[in-house]
User: What shape does this take?
Amino acid sequence: MRPYILETRHLSKRFKRQQAVADVSLKIPKGTVYGLLGPNGAGKTTTLKMITGLLRPSEGEILVGGKPWERRHLERIGALIEAPALYGNLTARENLMVHAKLLRLPAQRIEELLGTVDLQETRSKKASQFSLGMKQRLGIAIALLNQPELLILDEPTNGLDPLGIQELRELIRSFPGQGITVILSSHILSEVEQIADHIGIISGGRLGYESEIHTGEDLEALFMQVVARNREQAGVQHA
Assistant: This one.
């Protein structure tokens, strides 16, 4: 059995009267791609923001390598949540240099990362001229600057054309071989099925299912079943 690189225990988040995430307990095996699957508004991004310290949980705890989450653990985590933070007037190389300086990291890895995300030939092209797929890949390169053990990607294929999706899929699948565990959130069943080893299905802020993906499993039927059950339970609680 693989050790867990990250766990959440009864993680919850409320915004005034709105319960965005409720009692979510995730177990992320080390060296895998974990797909956090759910419809839009299910609580995926809120959960990931709590893991990365962008939001403070209302309840519950987060464990990194079996130890309670501390800010120092962010040194082991890279994240691309929502749109990548890019300087449009700078090249890919210059963007990486700026972020390396902000993080006080050596610049030696920049050329390596440009090769990893296939942007080494962009030369003097400004980020504002990049396609959406190129911007996403540059955002991933920035997230990889600190050589993370855990990479968190929030809906990374949103808006990409089929070629961009294929390129990003191959890139993400390569990370476990480099010692990087990936948490990938998505509402697209086919994407998660092709990329992930493990899945968690979240709906209405609640985790309704978590398991390794099994060959021949009808993921769509499972997804619909979990979403329907969560909605039914939420209806009973509010009745």
